[in-house]
Design brief:
Layout lengths: L2 H18 L15 H5 L2 H23 L9 H18 L1 H10 L4 H17 L9 H17 L7 H12 L4
């Protein structure tokens, strides 16, 4: 792929997100984006490229917030760092996140990428061990992200967030 193709693909992705953000749960309006079908072919290919962009953004934010996990003073530091990273990524790319959320259930490949993202959040926050079963890590990541989403507009201290996490992650009776 030439640089010209690369930049053209980026323009197409940006235009697609702008248009799709109007109705994020609907199929992507590829026919309204010149070159989208030519360069990507299918909605699934566009969504995969968008998910890759989101993952790259989020993982970059995570790396900057959690430079060295061994330097952190405990679970709260990891949770706080991941919280800051996730919130910054969502704030910067709210339309992209909305489009991906709206399309997640339409394609199995997107669901797998989403589950991988949830595992990344859980492990990076220190809420799960990478050696645990993937399904369990995904559940933890899903619960953690649900907390991030519900508390996104609220300002909360660490203690209530940590208490909620502990209750969610406690073994069931």
């Amino acid at each position: 792929m030439s640089w010209t193709d690369f930049y053209r693909r980026q323009e197409i992705l940006e235009a697609t997100v702008r248009l799709a953000a109007r109705n994020p749960g609907e199929p992507l309006p590829l026919e309204e984006v010149p070159g989208a079908e030519e360069h990507f072919g299918t909605e699934e290919n566009v969504l995969t490229a968008l998910q890759y962009q989101w993952t790259r953004t989020l993982s970059g934010r995570l790396r900057s917030e959690v430079a060295d996990p061994d330097d952190a003073d405990g679970l709260g530091d990891h949770v706080d760092a991941v919280t800051r990273a996730w919130r910054a990524a969502v704030e910067e790319h709210a339309d992209l996140r909305a489009v991906l959320d709206g399309a997640c259930e339409r394609h199995a490949s997107l669901r797998r990428m989403r589950e991988s993202e949830l595992r990344m959040l859980a492990v990076t926050a220190g809420l799960a061990d990478p050696r645990e079963p993937a399904e369990e890590i995904t559940k933890v990541g899903h619960a953690f992200e649900a907390l991030l989403r519900t508390s996104r507009s609220e300002t909360r201290r660490r203690a209530p967030m940590m208490g909620t996490l502990r209750r969610l992650l406690a073994p069931s009776a």
